[in-house]
Amino acid sequence: MAFWLYAARRAAHTAVTLVLLLVFMYVLFRLVPGDPTTIMLGTGELPFEAQQRLRELWGLDRPQWQQFVTYAGNLLTGDLGMSFYFRRPVIEIVWPMLLNTLVLMTPVVVISIVLGVVIGTWLGWRRGERIEEIGAILALIPRALPVFWIGIVLLALFAYELRWFPIGGMRQAFFFPETWYQELPFFDVARHLVLPVAAGVLTSMADPLMIQRTALIEVKHEDFMTHARARGLTERAQRRLARRTAFLPVLTYSAIMVGFAFGGQVLLEVVFNWPGIGRLMVNSVSQRDYPVAQATFFLMAAAVVTLNLLVDLAYGWLDPRIRQ
Amino acid sequence: MLALDDVSIIYAARSGPVQAVSGVTLHLPVGGSLGLVGESGCGKSTLALAALSLLPPEARLSSGAVRLEGQDLATLPEAKLRRLRWTRMAYVPQSAQNALVPVHSLRRQFRDTAAAHGMRSAAADERAAALFQRVELDPAILDRFPHELSGGMRQRAMIALALLFGPSLLVADEPTTGLDVIVQRQVIDLLRDLRTEDGLALLFISHDIGVVAELCSHVAVLYAGKVMESGATDRVFSLPNHPYTMGLQRAFPDIRHPERSIVSIAGHPPRLSAPPQGCPFAPRCPFAQPLCHNTVPSLVAGPDGRAVACHFAADAEALRDRARDPALWDAAA
Amino acid sequence: MSPFASWSGGFGAIFLSLVVLIAVLAPWLSPYDPLVNNFDAAGQLRRLAPPSAAHLLGTTYYGLDVLSQLIHGTRIVLIVGITCAVLIALIGTNIGLIAGYYGGRVDTVLMRATDLAFGVPFIPFAVVLVALLGPSLWNTIIAISFLMWRSTARVIRSQVLSLRERGFVKAARIAGASDMRILYVHIFPNVLPMALLYVSFDIAWAVLAEASISFLGFGDPHQTSWGQMLYLAYVSGSIRQAWWWTVPPGAALSLFVIAVFLVGREYERLANPRLR
Q1: Using the beta-carbon criterion (under 8 Å), do B93 and A226 form an inter-chain contact?
Q2: Torsion over CA: C236, C239, C244, C248 (sign)
């Protein structure tokens, strides 16, 4: 019961953030010099009357708040407008790209958190030993590496030099399987995933790792850990207990991490030519295709906000103390 | 049952080594009860952890031995020690609030403990329900989380958890601290029942000599990591031989003598990183002589099973008389 | 504290001093003008020349000297790092101070704004803003600082919340000190160590962010930054052979960020001994 109340409160909080986000975007994209009539029609000067008619048609003569309500309503119902560049509804362009993005991003986030938690627990548990001392400093290094540079290095080494992996993209145009395993349905995509996922995991694993390690060190000094030892729990059971409790800060962080992951995602997609919304966004911004840019931006922001909500809910589930 | 032989414990602190416990010898017979009293920081809790061989990594047994049923715990391999814990000796820590795992239900904590010693979940559930009844808790509470319970319920659940395997030794470290008076009473009654009915040996740690007097047949008074005085509880508290015990006794209200005013012993316990040269209590002792400041008195056993570490133990009679004056204690420091 | 740990802090400090020194002396240290194309004796553009005595780190696809570009890149790193850190510290610390101190509705509004800032994906936002405002170093700095204050604000606020209840603040209030005075004379010095720690890490994040924006092609075209070097190497299709063009800026960037982390870590340990 308490959990549902908590969940409802968090959901309401998220709804407010989402509305504020829409206001923010509305203002941001109004920063574009001129209004949509001049942007859409490019450099060609339109007769004043025609421009006026378009304004009325698009509702640009109405008060700002009315325009905002229409704008927000459209975005929320998936009416993302027409692409200037592709001359097609934005939703048709964005939707498949969003799926592609998830195909790349999900393994990056999941593997980063799992590896980070496992290694962080291991380091924290060995606190004070030489290996932990060195490990903690080594863990700083991948966090400092620019993900796009790692991507370039991996490409140069494993795609161009050694030719183990494709040089980018998501699928090969004409891929002819030679052996049985190459015929597996996702083999081609998986092959293309290896390098971008490796680059992504390498750079985003460090934060959950460090947080897990710090939390674990704190947890180790808690009374309940001494008590667990007194109860004769095996070392493995003790470590599992510490990991379980220390995981909570990592969970909080993972919401923020997903936000960062979208940033890293944009860079990864550009380096590896991955046909996702990150690359689409960069291209549309360069091409001044604002409806597409706006839609991709909105989707990423909405995803971050929604994932924040999910993480909050998971936290409430895992830590019963929070619900009150 | 439990024997501590000349135990010394050193903590490796940032500022240098701290001698938390020096040369403590204690003996707890099967089914017996021993109280450890003293102010906070006197080494009581460290001794409790040492008795369970649970010292934190920064602390080490620098000399002496802890023996449980004749076995030296320090020589046992970790795996053997682990199996000994909770089956032979259990522990009720200072704060049940922090000692219970916050993210697990009580049932889960019973089951995990059971699993560590090869008991199945079903058996653990059955045993937990029975133990909850023993400590007068509703077995339905087993599915609650620690933070959902009151302090008294938590402490009783903690005791129930300690009884899971019917241990022969229970170490209780200030189990009543932070509880209100009525709940304190319940917990003390429960511990006394366990002692008399189940024949549990009890090592009870408290700063409250009243509670110790009620629960324990024997007592050791600790100061600055050393035993100042030890013996049968009624003898030690009715006729204290050490000035510190005298002061401690006057620091708590006594129902038999409500007219006595309560004193506080002026000053603070010495810093253990730089212990004084002579008797550790000398700086606060109202009867201290030059000898006390220079020479450490050794713990001398008396004829009635008592031991005292005071140069002037022979004059205890006269000191007890002088100690009755409350003004004496305030003036000392 | 082990010698290995303090050695690492020292390494960081030495590396950072070196970067500052190079940035100051860049025009005298760099062998060529970083934005002028180099030609060989025959009048041919020196395209993708491998490292040689003339060009210690080789040349780019456009015939520019990599070493000179690398040296001039330190200036962007310092400008971006320091300016962003100062802006972020100003915004974040003040929002945290005010939200934590006044509480109530002020706190709610400011924390909602912080939640919002956390909801905006950082790199995409910076790209959109820079593209809308036009690529320039200043717009990059503004875009970075516009969102990055969020974590500083949260941390400072939670510190202020606990400081607010402390005796010395209550005493100042009873003595009739104004809110401004309590905030900036009594509370601020106590959050300063934490604020400085965040500033140090913000330098690293800001530099990485600038590099990312430049790598995506939205950097200032009139400046030479490490991120931009990587962008040009990538778009000119040179990453396959010209390791001398891709390794130095990436390695320099990574080393700089690691150095900042190490120094920050050392500072954290000195300021907060509980951690070690």
Answers
A1: yes
A2: positive
pLDDT digits (tens, 9 = 90+) for C176-201: 788 888 888 888 888 888 888 888 88
Mutate to test the interface with A, among B49, B58, B113 (most CBs of A within 10 A): B113
3-state secondary structure of C88: helix
What are A22-66's pLDDT values in tens digits? Answer: 888 888 877 665 555 555 554 455 667 777 776 676 666 677 777
Of C118, C216, C257, the CB nearest to A282: C216
What distances in angstroms separate CA B219 from CA A49, B51, B204, B304, one per listed residue?
102, 16, 9, 14
Residue B331: the pLDDT is 57
Whole-number Å distance between alpha carbons of C265 and B9: 33
* A24: amino acid identity, one letter: F
- Pull the structure tokens for residue B85: 């814990």
Query: How close, in Å, is residue C124 to chain A by CA atoms?
Result: 6
Buried b / exposed e over B2-12, threshold 16 CB at 10 Å, is bbbeebbbbbe
Chain C closest CA to A32's CA: distance in Å? 6
Amino acid residing at A86: F
Long-range own/partner contacts, residues B127-135 (CB < 8 A, 24 or more apart): B127/B164, B128/B160, B128/B164, B131/B160, B131/B161, B131/B163, B131/B164, B132/B157, B132/B160, B134/B160, B134/B163, B135/B159, B135/B160, B135/B190
| Subunit contact C118:A282, Cβ cutoff 8 A | no
Q: What is the dihedral of CA B176, B179, B185, B189, to 10 degrees?
A: -40
In this prediction the pTM is 0.77
Chain A and chain B share a number of CB contacts under 8 A equal to 73
Alpha carbon distance, N-terminus to C-terminus of chain B: 41
